[in-house]
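Handout, page 2. Input:
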Amino acid sequence: PNVVEDGQLLLMRPVRFAGRTPFPLLNPDCGGQVATIVGTEGADRLFGTAGPDVIVGLGGNDSIYGYGGDDVICGGDGIDVIYGGDGIDFIDGGAGDDRVIGDGGNDDLRGGSGVDRVFGMDGDDRLDGGSQTDYCYGGVGTNTFTACEVFPAGTG
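Output:
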């Protein structure tokens, strides 16, 4: 279950048909995986669980918290702030000027198409700023940078 910004409880389950994939309108994909937590076109606060989650923010300026587990998170359109939390996470900020924060684990972090700030924190992370001038901070560990035009001192 998801609690969206206005306090309503949003229940979504994949619809599965024998031999077919889940119905895509109810469960968009993220990183090639079917979403387990889905936001709205508005500004949402979405929270993952202690286990692995696939979270899609859709539109709006979202705050997304993956928490524990190996999460897959896609922000979608809007200016999003995304925290991966513990685990080996894949995060794609999507369109908009996003902040993508990996935290613990060897994360794959992608800013998307806006002017983004990508933070690796702990672990051996892959940071990909995206298509515009992006700021990437590697943190502790051996990090790989792609499409990051600005590297402040001490970025791994």
